[in-house]
């Protein structure tokens, strides 16, 4: 099976920023063609000689008769179906929101490999805030700053280990 890594999370946590960092200069965003791909960005990432595809979920189309929460759920379901590995991004400064908790529950029920990613750890003081995210029941949070790149190497090391 192709190695597919999906980035999920509620809006504004930094999914697209992380996607752009992972895909980097080879921003091989394929398309937003028909069907399930229509509201997703695809890219390629290579780390230590291993290649995988990355999906950035969220953002473009909200079905008008869907509620916001339904739309987030739908995107997480698609990601779980499509991907081998899920990067579940939360905002380290935002605390655990209801959306975060709902997504975490869906992901715990899936049998997929999930990495909990606490984003926006822009300085060392913020590492402290990631501890509360253990309550999501998804193991150790990976502290990163998608903006600066802090922590993304350690995250990628762990991701390719489980490919
Ligand atoms: P998405 O809705 O989850 O795709 O989030 P975006 O990638 O669009 O980012 C939402 C906002 O968070 C933007 O203003 C980003 O610049 C900001 N952001 C993303 N990553 C970081 C980060 O590591 N640190 C900080 N301080 N801001 C970030
Ligand atoms: Mg986005």
UniProtKB/TrEMBL annotation:
What Gene Ontology terms for biological process does this UniProt record contain?
ribosome biogenesis
The residues the record assigns to binding GTP 1 are 9-16, 56-60, 119-122
Pinpoint the EngA-type G domain residues.
3-163
Q: Which GO terms describe its molecular function?
A: GTP binding; ribosome binding
Does the record carry Zinc-finger as a key word?
Answer: no
> From which domain of life does this come?
Bacteria
The keyword Repeat is assigned to this record: yes
Fill in the subunit field for this protein: Associates with the 50S ribosomal subunit.
Say which family it is in.
Belongs to the TRAFAC class TrmE-Era-EngA-EngB-Septin-like GTPase superfamily. EngA (Der) GTPase family.
Task performed by this protein = GTPase that plays an essential role in the late steps of ribosome biogenesis.
Q: What is this protein called?
A: GTPase Der
Name the source organism: Acetobacteroides hydrogenigenes
Q: What is the lineage of its organism?
A: Bacteria, Pseudomonadati, Bacteroidota, Bacteroidia, Bacteroidales
């Amino acid at each position: 099976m192709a190695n597919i890594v999906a980035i999920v999370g509620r809006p504004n946590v930094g999914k697209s920023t992380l996607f752009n960092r992972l895909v980097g200069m080879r921003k091989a965003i394929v398309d937003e063609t028909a069907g399930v791909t229509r509201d997703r960005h695809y890219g390629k990432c290579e780390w230590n000689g291993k290649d995988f595809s990355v999906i950035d979920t969220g953002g473009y189309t909200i079905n008008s008769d869907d509620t916001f929460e339904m739309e987030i759920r739908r995107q997480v379901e698609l990601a779980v179906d499509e991907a081998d590995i899920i990067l579940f991004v939360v905002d380290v400064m935002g605390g655990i929101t209801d959306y975060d908790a709902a997504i975490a529950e869906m992901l715990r029920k899936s049998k997929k490999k999930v990495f909990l990613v606490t984003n926006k750890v822009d300085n060392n003081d913020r590492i402290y805030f990631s501890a509360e995210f253990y309550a999501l029941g998804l193991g150790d949070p990976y502290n990163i700053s998608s903006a600066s790149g802090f922590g993304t190497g350690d995250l990628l090391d762990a991701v390719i280990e489980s490919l």
